[in-house]
Amino acid sequence: MRNDVAFGAELRVGVLGGGQLGRMMIQAAADWDLRVEVMDPAADAPCRHLTHRFVQGDLQDADAVFEFGKELDVITIEIEHVSVDGLRRLKAAGVEVHPDPEHLATIQDKGLQKQFFAAHGIPSAPFTLSDAPPTAFPVVQKLRKGGYDGKGVAILRTPDDAGFDAPCVLEQPVNIAKELSVIVARNPSGATATFPVVEAVFDPVANLVDYLIAPADVSPETAKEAEALALRVADAMGFTGLLAVELFLDQEGALWVNELAPRTHNSGHHTIEANHTSQFQQHLRAILDLPLGDASARSAGAMLNLVGAADAHGSPVYTGLGAALGLPGVYAHIYGKTAVKPFRKMGHVTVTGATVEAVKARVLELRDALRVDGTRVS
Ligand code: ADP
């Protein structure tokens, strides 16, 4: 357990990635006056003006990652596409790296992730690994490396459907009833805390999470099982930091682990207002080996991603936010991105309330009222 040296800007924490997840981590870190330094390839990254030190650099470049982190005490990530070799070198040089570079290496490669599930008896859709296009259909083809937000995943029904010609996981389609996620925190001492299960509702056009509801509308048994399964994954890996475990609930009521994210996650944004400890503070507690906070809910929560309209380009123009802030239990987070693009995540709105029904009704209302357009349309 770390002592009070963690506080008062004595300790230097480095974050690889300077997007909205890093930005919200910095907001949590400011409560404890932690010194946070950030590296991101974009000169105008959302963290740019909020960090003690900003380095513009390529996250995939091992030398750049090493140079950024070598003087720091603790290194963490807000995106998984970072150089594992750079992190290995930092660890070897005595910098604390959370999550562990080897866990990141497993999670970066969907093939290794699936093999990890299989080796530890974690239920996950049956799969094979292949370097060639599939020959049996239907099948879910996933690029082993580099995919995000559904890019790199193709559901192929016939040989005519366009897939990928690269090393892939070929996965049996699951008859999905609901997409769930559970965020688990685990610190280096092995203490764990699990956030209540969340239900993600997808936008079929953008293939991005449209809104999410917490707690998920599932039976108490399913909720318990999902939370226990996520904890099992974190413990089996010996993970440190925050681990988001994405799950499918199938039409027969069975749970399957889909994939892992070794970091704060879109499905945990509501915890800022709706839980006793936010995912961002919990992540800091976990990587600094501090006692984990109470992850339980204060109230029901819902979260709506504010994404760029289908024709939005240029500077963002937010419509409807002012009126939304007049509603009880509505909180806005704007990420400070200078350019909007179609479906780009520009911010989110959280709704808290007494019941899941109430927050769901409100979030659907906001979905129609809020827009992110751009100064240019195409
Ligand atoms: P990403 O890493 O890009 O988020 P995912 O593995 O989460 O990719 O897949 C994206 C989406 O594709 C999932 O949210 C789900 O809707 C669908 N999907 C993925 N795997 C399967 C599967 N085995 N069966 C059915 N649908 C799937």
Structural summary, described in words:
There is one protein chain. With 378 residues, this protein is an alpha+beta fold. The chain has three domains: 12-97, Rossmann fold (3-Layer(aba) Sandwich), CATH 3.40.50; 126-171, no CATH class; 176-377, D-amino Acid Aminotransferase, Chain A, domain 1 (2-Layer Sandwich), CATH 3.30.470. It is 25% helix and 31% strand. It is built from ten helices and 20 strands. Strands 10, 11, 12, 13, 14, 15, 16, 18 and 19 form a nine-stranded antiparallel β-sheet that branches. α3 (84-92) runs antiparallel to α4 (101-108). The longest helix has 18 residues, at 220-237. It is globular and about 55 Å long. The chain binds adenosine-5'-diphosphate. The site of adenosine-5'-diphosphate (ADP) has 17 residues, from β7, β10 and β15.
Radius of gyration, in angstroms, nearest whole number: 20 Å
Give the terminus-to-terminus CA distance.
54 Å
CATH-defined superfamily of the largest domain: ATP-grasp fold, B domain
- Average pLDDT: 95
Ions and ligands: adenosine-5'-diphosphate
Highest CATH level, the class of the largest domain: Alpha Beta
Envelope shape: globular
- Tally of separate domains: 3
Summarize the structure.
This protein is of the alpha+beta class and 378 residues long.
Quick tags:
378 residues, alpha+beta, Rossmann fold, D-amino Acid Aminotransferase, Chain A, domain 1, 3 domains, 9-stranded antiparallel β-sheet, 5-stranded parallel β-sheet, 10 helices, 31% strand, globular, binds adenosine-5'-diphosphate
